[in-house]
Amino acid sequence: EKGGYDHFMMKEIYEQPRSIRDCMRGRIYPERGIVQLGGIKEYTEKLKNIDRIIIVACGTSWHAGLVGEYLIEEYARVPVEVEYASEFRYRNPIISEKDLVIAISQSGETADTMAAIELAKEKGATIFGICNVVGASIPRITHAGVYTHAGPEIGVASTKAFTAQVTALTLMAFYIAQQRGTITQGKLIEYLTELNEIPDLIEKALQANDQIKEIAATYKDSNNCLFLGRGSSFPVALEGALKLKEISYIHAEGYPAAEMKHGPIALIDAEMPVVFIATKNSSHEKVVSNIQEVKARGGKVIAIVTEGDTIIKGMAEHVIEIPQTGEAFVPLLATIPLQLLSYHIAVMRGCNVDQPRNLAKSVTVE
Ligand code: F6R
């Protein structure tokens, strides 16, 4: 049942090339630059007239929502707010019929997310769901939606469900952009072609497993760990930190790299591993200077870099390469080494990675 792996989590990490392919199947036509999302087709006209998108979710799904915010704002040019469902529902949020709410949930049963949906529905908003479990409660109370098709996720810590959520949000961002005319056909051809290659690139990213296992052995006894990234890699940092804390019980925090100097830098000493998502993109130089700041204080740097990056190699203790891809798709690749790192650290600490203490796969309590 674990497909030859020691844990469901590892099996599910390795399933990601397949789960992402399943999420995209029948939905993208790269040669023609077309995205089709049957589940929200009826709302195509509506999408042309929305003023704002509010994403509601919890935990890892909320992190996927933050990646979605970057993608939707960048390509569809609609303002996006990302809210913890548990906060949103207890405020008196300002919502109108011109708002689209996107609820993200792997299980489709999270109580706070359901309550947020009901509240937004009462106020007249259109609600889309992004869920993994077919026929769960959330898909039944939303107006329309997109299934992630990642397949059953058994490990309590979300892995393949997260990358499938990010994939579904990417498709949704392009779909909305296509409807609203904020993206050219030529660009869509280019982006969809890149997106279509992501499963193969994840396959390549997984080849760093042995190297990551060695790095894990070096840091398994750490008490704290910091994860830093900029832009759409900031939510990846948050997700990396959540994964580490939930399965290894090491205290970890994710921060936008530039925020480090406003506080967390005080924590850095020779005992502190700092994981940077430092891929080649528009903010590469800035991240390089953030790495220098950590190095100057004796911190140990583990950097996730783009294949062939020589600048960071000379600075970081450890460099984990991921293949080159378009900026929009970096979160899908950069997440992989972070999942593997948490997994190996947790196993080496003797933790029950598939069933971490105090956690449940679906949180149906408020
Ligand atoms: C983390 C994790 C949780 C869930 C959260 C929301 O690995 O699994 O943080 O992401 O409880 O669950 P869903 O997506 O089922 O609404």
Automatic annotation (TrEMBL):
Keywords, sorted A to Z: Aminotransferase, Cytoplasm, Glutamine amidotransferase, Repeat, Transferase
Active site: 361
Entry's localization field: Cytoplasm
Keyword Transferase carried by entry: yes
One of the GO biological process terms: protein N-linked glycosylation
Reactions listed under catalytic activity: D-fructose 6-phosphate + L-glutamine = D-glucosamine 6-phosphate + L-glutamate
EC number: 2.6.1.16
GO cellular component: cytosol
Keyword Transcription tagged: no
Lineage: superkingdom: Bacteria
SIS domain segment(s): 43-182, 215-356
Any one GO MF annotation of this record: glutamine-fructose-6-phosphate transaminase (isomerizing) activity
Enzyme class (EC, first level): transferase
Subunit structure, as described in the record: Homodimer.
Protein role: Catalyzes the first step in hexosamine metabolism, converting fructose-6P into glucosamine-6P using glutamine as a nitrogen source.
Protein name: Glutamine--fructose-6-phosphate aminotransferase [isomerizing]
Species of the source: Mucilaginibacter yixingensis
Lineage: Bacteria, Pseudomonadati, Bacteroidota, Sphingobacteriia, Sphingobacteriales
